[in-house]
Amino acid sequence: MDSFAANRPMIVANAEGHHLIDTDGRRYLDAVSSLWVTTLGHRVPELDDAIVQQLAKGAHSTMLGNGNQVVIELSEALAKVVPVDRPHFLYASDGASAVEQALKMAFQYWANVGEPAHSKFLAFRGAYHGDTIGALSVGDDGFGADIFNALRFDVLRAPAFDDPECFDRAIALVEQHAHQLAAVIIEPSVQAAAGMQLCDLDGLRRFGAACKANGVLLICDEIATGFGRTGELFASTTCGLEPDLLCLGKGLTGGYLPMSVTAASDRIFQAFIGPDLGTTTFYHGHSYGGNALAAAVALRHLELIEAWDVLANVRERSLEFEQLLHDRIDANPAVKEIRLRGLMGGIELAPPIPGLRWGRKVAAAATDRGVFLRPIGDTVILMPPLTLTSEEVHEIVHALSAAIDEVASD
Ligand SMILES: Cc1ncc(COP(=O)(O)O)c(C=O)c1O
């Protein structure tokens, strides 16, 4: 909070399409999709309407041992598209909660099938899975996680995606520790909070196959990559991964309402079948899990992604970004590396000495130019809405390029 005012925070009064409007009436292109959640834009009439219509039917009813029509409809729609075998869904509100559910399900799965020795998790360096204690445990150190070391449980660690040996080492760990692993957890394709680190897709494919061959459960955390960000509806599909547990959040509702979900394969689900309140029962649930308003907007959102051919737009805009970033920014000595997959981008800056806070300064300078950006350390994140236009691609790169020049020449 010490530097809150110095970071020149934007106080949003309204949002419209791809723009945020602050209390002084200034407009900003929301090039981080309001922390990676907005997909089709703000105040999309079809999405607004889905919520209004559901409001007339009831905003929420408990899913604890009961159901709600629109949540069932959403589950049926998701079942057709998620890369999970005969999926079953448990809803929560935030990404971290979806991860906690997945970790607990994987752990209890082995207890339920009578093999409790499978109690360890394998995770990757550079990973981020959320801020609750279980999610922090499988996430990497740094960014304040270490403070909670006494509370974080021990995990096996494969190298981060920027290590070319990453998947060879991860496969060796899977083979060596299969007998004690509850599951492995991975952000498929892109480690987002690590500054958009891209993985070798062939390595990931081999890693998925190794998990399968060794009977190790695979948890894919697609909270950031899901719903089209990489140019596929789900990044797991790109590498033929078929997770036992899939975590979704963020873009699930198009960025409208907090909803997340853990999809479990039928293999997992069947292990929990047993007497009421028995030893195989999954004693877990969140008050707002399966919120009806969120489900209504999520369902409409899924329909619109297909109807508007949003994935085609992601791929086209991604190619434009690639070209433009290459032409305008790549050769700038203030830039160390450009990483882009679909509409998930990271521009890693190259400050001459550490501690200059270039990331923050470049993001602020771009925001001054009407393009709202946020950094992670010295990597400026590009995560625009999926319905971005060609003109907006130019606008973002133009503002970013000018912002980098301004900060580097200071
Ligand atoms: C891959 C991944 N997993 C989990 C989370 C946590 O989601 P939430 O902030 O909704 O708890 C994030 C958030 O950035 C994420 O990128």
Give the secondary structure arrangement, pairings included.
Blueprint: E1 12-16, E2 19-22, E3 27-30, H1 33-36, H2 45-55, H3 69-81, E4 88-92, H4 95-112, E5 120-124, H5 133-138, E6 156-158, H6 166-177, E7 181-186, E8 190-191, E9 197-198, H7 201-213, E10 218-221, H8 235-238, E11 245-248, E12 260-264, H9 266-270, H10 292-307, H11 310-328, E13 335-341, E14 344-349, H12 358-368, E15 371-372, E16 374-376, E17 379-382, H13 390-408
Parallel strand pairs: 3-15, 5-6, 5-7, 7-10, 10-11
Antiparallel strand pairs: 1-2, 2-3, 4-12, 8-9, 11-12, 13-14, 14-17, 16-17
Helix pairs in contact: 2-10, 3-10, 6-7, 11-13, 12-13
The chain binds pyridoxal-5'-phosphate (PLP).
Provide the descriptors you would attach to this structure in a database record.
410 residues; alpha/beta; Aspartate Aminotransferase, domain 1; Aspartate Aminotransferase, domain 2; 7-stranded mixed β-sheet; 4-stranded mixed β-sheet; 13 helices; 17% strand; binds pyridoxal-5'-phosphate
Description:
The protein has 410 residues and is of the alpha/beta class. It has 2 domains: 12-30 and 309-408, Aspartate Aminotransferase, domain 1, CATH 3.90.1150.10; 48-307, Type I PLP-dependent aspartate aminotransferase-like (Major domain) (Aspartate Aminotransferase, domain 2, 3-Layer(aba) Sandwich), CATH 3.40.640.10. Helices cover 37% and strands 17% of the residues. The chain is built from 13 helices and 17 strands. The strands form 4 sheets. It has a 7-stranded mixed β-sheet, sandwiched between helices. Pyridoxal-5'-phosphate binds at residues 94-96, 99, 128-130, 187, 192-193, 221, 223-224, 249.
